[in-house]
Amino acid sequence: MKKQLFAAATLAATSPAAAFAQEASFDDRVNEIFSNSTGWFVNLIFMNLPGTSFPWIVLWLVVAASIFTVYFGFIQVRAFTHAISLVKGDYSDPNDAGEVSHFQALATALSGTVGLGNIAGVAVAVGIGGPGATFWMIVAGLLGMASKFTECTLGVKYRNEYPDGTVSGGPMYYMTKGFKERSLPGGGALAILFSIFCILGALGGGNMFQANQAHAQISGITGDYPGWITGIIFALIVFAVIVGGIKSIAQVTEKVVPFMGIMYVLSALVILLVNYDQIGWAFGQIWAGAFTGLGVAGGFVGALIQGFKRAAFSNEAGVGSAAIAHSAVKTKEPVTEGVVSLLEPFIDTVVICTMTALVITISGVLVVNPETGLFVLNEAGTAIQTVDGSSGVQLTSAAFATGFSWFPYLLAVAVVLFAFSTMISWSYYGLKAWTYLFGEGKTKEIIFKVIFCIFIVIGAAADLGAVIDFSDAMIFAMAVVNITALYFLMPIVKREMNSYFARIKSGEIVKHVH
Amino acid sequence: MTKTMFVVGIDGSDAGERALAFAKSRAKALGECTLTLCYVIEWSPFTFQTPEENEQRHKRREEEISMAHERVLDPAVAAAEQEGFKVVGVVRHGDAAEILDNLAKEHDATQIIVGRVGIRGLKERVFGGVTGRLVATATVPVTIIP
Q1: How many Å is the Cα radius of gyration of chain A?
Q2: What is the per-residue pLDDT for A380?
Q3: Which positions in chain A touch B43 (Cβ < 8 Å)?
Q4: From the list B43, B50, B56, which residue is nearest A97 (CB)?
Q5: Burial of A476: CB neighbours in 10 Å, binned 0-12, 13-18, 19+
Q6: What backbone phi and psi angles, to 5 degrees, belong to A173?
C-alpha cells in the first residue's frame, strides 16, 4: 500500500512540469497508473458475497447500523427532539460560553460531510440504481444515525485533552483507551490500521473525489480543458490555507458554505413546488424502484447497493471521521454529543440527498421509454441513459437547470466551495491520523500537507470512475476497522446512555434558563 | 442604608470610560455601593468554525479572558479600588446586551450603566446596536452615557 502511495506521489511531483510538454497524455497517464495501482484493493473491498452480486461491505455497514439501532433502542427516534434542544443550547452551562458549542461541533462536522456526496454521489446512485436507490439511501441514512451516535459518544469520551487546552479525538483514541479500559487486546493495532486508512480516505474521498468533481463542474461551464490545471489551482489555495496558515480563506468558506447549502435546498424545494403534481409520481418511482428495480442495471439489488453505498459515502456514518470532528465540543456528558451527531446523517442524507434525488427524478433528465414507462439503459448497459449523456455532478446540474437556467453557475460555485470545505475538513482528519502514526511535529505535519496537495492534482486529472472506486474503497476500509471497534465498545456507550437519560428523567440534569 | 449595586459595561473604549466615570460619581453620592465592571467578549454559539479552530477554542478562550483582564478590566478595577470603591470585575463571553442584563439579575443590581457607541453602518441599523437592544430588553433601569 505504502509503496504505491509513494509511487503515485512521485509521479505527481515530477509530472506537472513534464505535462506542459505533453499535455494531452498527462491525464491519461495519471488515470492509467492510478487505476492499475489501486485496483486490487478496490476489488477486495467491493468483493461480492460468495454466489451473489452483493458486495460484503454494504452488508457490513447495514448490519452494523441495524445492530446499533436495535441495541440502543432506536435512539435516533427517542433522542431526536433532545438533539435539537441540545443544539439550541438549552442544556449548555452559561459558564461555558466561549467554548465550542454543540451547534458549532455539529456545523463543523456537517461541513465536512455535506458536499459532493450529496450532489454528485446521489446523481451516481440514481443514475445507476434508478430512483429506487433513493429509498435505500433514506433507509441507510436513518439507520446510520445510530452508528454516528455510537462513534461520536466514544469520540468525546476518550478524547485527549492536552495541558495547553487543545483537544484531539477520534477512533484512534477510543480504540486504544477504550480497549484498554475493557482489558481487550488489539486496540493499538486497530488504531494503526484505522489511521492508515484514514490518511488514504482523506486523500481519496476527502480530496481526489472533490477535486475531480470540482473540475468536472468548472469544465462543464468553461469548456473542456486538462484537469491538472484545476488541480494545481486548488492545490495552491489549499496549500495557502493548511500550510501557509491563511485562515481568512478557510473562515470565509466556513461562512459561505452553510449559506450555499441552504440555497441548494431552497432551490430544490422551489423546483419541487413548481412540479408539485409530479412529486407523487416521483415517490411512486422511488417506492416501486426500491423493490423491483424497474428494469434498471442490476435490478432491485442494484438499487439497494447504490443507495446504501452512496448514503454511507455521503454521511460517513460508521466511518469514524465524524468522531474526530465532534470531539472538540465542550461538554461533561459524552452522550450529549452523540445525540447531537444523530442529526448529521439526518440533515445530510434524509433531507439533502433526498432533495437531489427527487429533483433528478422529476426533472426528466433520466430517459424513460415512453412505451414501457421503464428507464432506458445506456449503450454499455451500466447506467440509465441521461438526456445529455452526463453523470455525477453534471447530471445534478442538468436536472436543476430544467428549473432554473442559471442554476449550473450557482452549482458550480457551490461545488467548488463544498469541495474546498470538505478538503479542509479531511486534511484535518488525515492530519490527526498522520500525527497519531508518526507523532506531532512541524516537519511531519508539513510532509502530510504537501502530499495532500499533490493528490488534489492527481484527483482533478484522473477519471471519475477510477477516483470514485478508490475513494469508496478507502472510506469503507475505515468503516471496517471502526465498526469492529464499535462492536467491542458499544457496552460502554450503552452504560453512558442509560446513566445520562436516567439523570434527565430524574431531573438531575436540567435545562438552563435563558 | 441599603446596599446598591451598579453593573457597568466597559470595553476599553472612551465610551466605557465615560460610563465608569459616571458610575463612580453616582456611587460616591450614594455611599454604600458596589460596582460590577463587566467586559464582554462578543461571541455566539451559532457560528461556523473549522475543525482546527474548534481544536484550539478552549486555549483561545483562556487567552481572550486573560487578555481582557490584563488590558482593560484589572487596571480599571485596581484604579477604582484605590479610589475607595467596592469593585467586582467580570469577563464573560456572549452577547453584550444579554450578559449585562443577566449579570444585573444575578447580583440584584439597581441599574446598568453603559456608554453609548454611536450607531453607524448598516449592521447597527439592522440590529440596533448593543445599547439599543439592552434598553429594549433589560429588566432593570439602564443609564446610557453619551
Answers
A1: 22
A2: 67
A3: 97-98
A4: B43
A5: buried
A6: -80, -40
pTM of the model: 0.86
Backbone angles phi and psi of A232, in degrees to 5:
-65, -40
DSSP, residue by residue, A81-128? HHHHHHHHTTT--GGGTTS--HHHHHHHHHHHHSSHIIIIIHHHHHHH
Angstrom distance (rounded) from CA A506 to CA A504: 6
The three-state secondary structure class of A298 is: coil
> A456-508 pLDDT, tens per residue?
998 888 776 777 777 778 888 999 999 999 999 999 999 999 999 999 999 88
C-beta of residue B127 within 8 angstroms of C-beta of residue B133: yes
Residue among B48, B53, B64 whose CB faces A258 most closely: B48
Cβ–Cβ gap A111/B64 under 8 Å: no
Alpha helices, H only, B31-128: 51-68, 74-82, 96-106, 121-127
Residue of A nearest to B50 (CA): A108
Quote the pLDDT of residue A452. Answer: 93
A514 pLDDT band, cuts 50/70/90, is low
Taking any CB pair shorter than 8 Å as contact, residues of chain B touching chain A are 41, 43, 45-59, 61-62, 64-65, 92-94, 102
Task: Give the rounded distance of the alpha carbon of A128 from its chain centre.
Answer: 19
Which residue do the cell numbers 483562556 mark?
Answer: B62
Mean pLDDT for chain A overall = 84
Nearest to A343 by CA among A312, A379, A315: A315
Closest-CA distance of chain A to residue B110, Å: 20
Q: What is the pLDDT of residues A118-162, one digit of tens each?
A: 888 888 888 888 888 899 999 999 999 999 999 999 999 999 988
Whether residue A8 is predicted with pLDDT greater than 70 in this model: the reply is no
User: N- to C-terminal Cα distance for chain A?
Assistant: 54
Residues of A in contact with B50 (CB under 8 A): 108, 247, 250-251, 254, 424-425, 428
Alpha-carbon distance of A199 to A192, in angstroms, equals 11
Kindly report, residue by residue over A248-289, the tens digit of the pLDDT.
Answer: 777 777 777 788 888 888 889 999 898 888 888 888 888 888
The residue of chain A nearest to residue B44, with distances taken between CA atoms, is: A98
Name the interface residues of A facing B (CB cutoff 8 Å): 89, 92, 94, 97-105, 107-108, 111-112, 164-168, 247, 250-251, 254-255, 257-258, 324-325, 328-330, 424-425, 428-429
Q: Are B69 and B91 in contact (CB under 8 A)?
A: yes
Query: Confidence band (pLDDT; 50, 70, 90) for A381?
Result: low
Q: Which run of H or of E encompasses B86?
A: strand B86-94
What does the radius of gyration of chain B's CA atoms come to, in whole angstroms? 16
Q: Which three cell numbers stand for residue A475?
A: 472510506
Neighbours of A360 (CB within 10 A): 26
Q: CA-CA distances (angstroms) from residue A427 to A34, A170, A243?
A: 21, 14, 11
Helix (H) or strand (E) holding A428: helix A407-438
What is the rounded distance in angstroms from the CA atom of residue B38 to the CA atom of residue B73?
8
What confidence tier does A103 reach under pLDDT thresholds 50, 70, 90?
A: very high
Q: Do A257 and B57 touch (CB under 8 A)?
A: no
pLDDT tens digits, A310-332? 888 788 889 999 999 999 888 88
